[in-house]
Amino acid sequence: MTKLETFVNLGLKVDPFYHAEHETGDGLRIQRILNMAVESRAMVSIVGERGMGKTQAVRAALDKIGCRIVLVEKSQKERISISDIEKAIILDLSTNEQPKANGEVRARQLRRIVGEASGKQKIVLMIEEAHRLHGNTLRSLKTLREIQWLGKSELFTVVLIGQSDPMNKAGVSEVRLRTDCVRMQGLTGTEAVEYVRATLGKYFDDGALELISCLPQSNNYLDLQELLVRLLNYALAGGRNQVSKQDVTEVSEGIQTALPSVKTKSVLSPVSGSDALKSVLAARKGSSPVPLKSVM
């Protein structure tokens, strides 16, 4: 069954994962870093695998800071030019002006609009999927940040969000030196359990939650969601609407090769779902437990 069909069969009216609010250590880190970045008009890259919650963490942090956000919405990120970015800034910061066609005239228009707006509110330029940006665009973005107004320069903050560091491209070393790269670490075991409790908690017993928290898939929102739906389908097929510890043992051992591998925060090498379960179960029988994931 699909995710939504599973939820319908459970009698739910809304997808429990939809807009689920969940505070994590990653989110708190991002908030502290972006607080400083905004105050310093810095350029920051927020990097992490898909499903780490990058965009959600950044948006939540900027909402709390109270910035004026400029978004570059062009879907073909690899084709975004500095001209596209200039036009987005003008459109988002001006209430009644259209970007000028002439490049030099538009540059002067941009400087005035950004200068006036920055005196009233902190401005953040946010670009998602920034790992797809062309190197020329990144180099031009550095120059754009240096525009001046009434003797002040670096009038806005730049936040780049991507699955990898956008500065890992040839020819952007000078931009890299002026950019901080913040890597998302993912969910800890405790945070994963809290997320399950907040979304689907009544459908999982305590033993199931304990084992789920030890699996590598609990590090990532999307992988964790997929695992939870598989477990629910398994329980429903058995005529039950609550997932047990035994369900987690059987399902995770059966699908370990099908689930995406995710790096954990363990000092050891990443372990498979089967190995994780064997370690936990061995610990319960009196053996020395193997550390699977450290809680940040």
Features:
296 residues; alpha/beta; Rossmann fold; five-stranded parallel beta sheet; two-stranded antiparallel ribbon; 7 strands; elongated; disordered C terminus
Overall description:
With 296 residues, the chain is of the alpha/beta class. The protein has two domains: 3-20 and 187-284, no CATH class; 25-183, Rossmann fold. The chain is built from twelve helices and seven strands. A five-stranded parallel β-sheet has the order 2-3-6-1-7, sandwiched between helices. A two-stranded antiparallel sheet has the order 4-5. β4 (148-149) and β5 (152-153) form a beta hairpin. It starts with a helix and ends in a 12-residue tail after the last helix.
SSE diagram, text form:
Blueprint: H1 3-9, H2 25-40, E1 43-47, H3 54-65, E2 68-71, H4 82-93, H5 103-118, E3 123-127, H6 135-145, E4 148-149, E5 152-153, E6 157-162, H7 173-176, E7 179-183, H8 189-200, H9 206-212, H10 221-237, H11 245-255, H12 273-284
Parallel strand pairs: 1-6, 1-7, 2-3, 3-6
Antiparallel strand pairs: 4-5
Helix pairs in contact: 2-3, 4-5, 9-11, 10-11
Query: Could you estimate the helical fraction of the residues in percent?
Result: 40-55%
Shape: elongated
CATH topology of the largest domain: Rossmann fold
Taking pLDDT < 50 over at least 5 consecutive residues as the criterion, the unreliable ranges are 257-274, 283-296
Strand order of the largest sheet: 2-3-6-1-7
Helical stretch count? 12
Structural class: alpha/beta
* Secondary-structure element string: HHEHEHHEHEEEHEHHHHH
CA(first)-CA(last) distance: 35 Å
Q: For this structure, what is the CATH homologous superfamily of the largest domain?
A: P-loop containing nucleotide triphosphate hydrolases
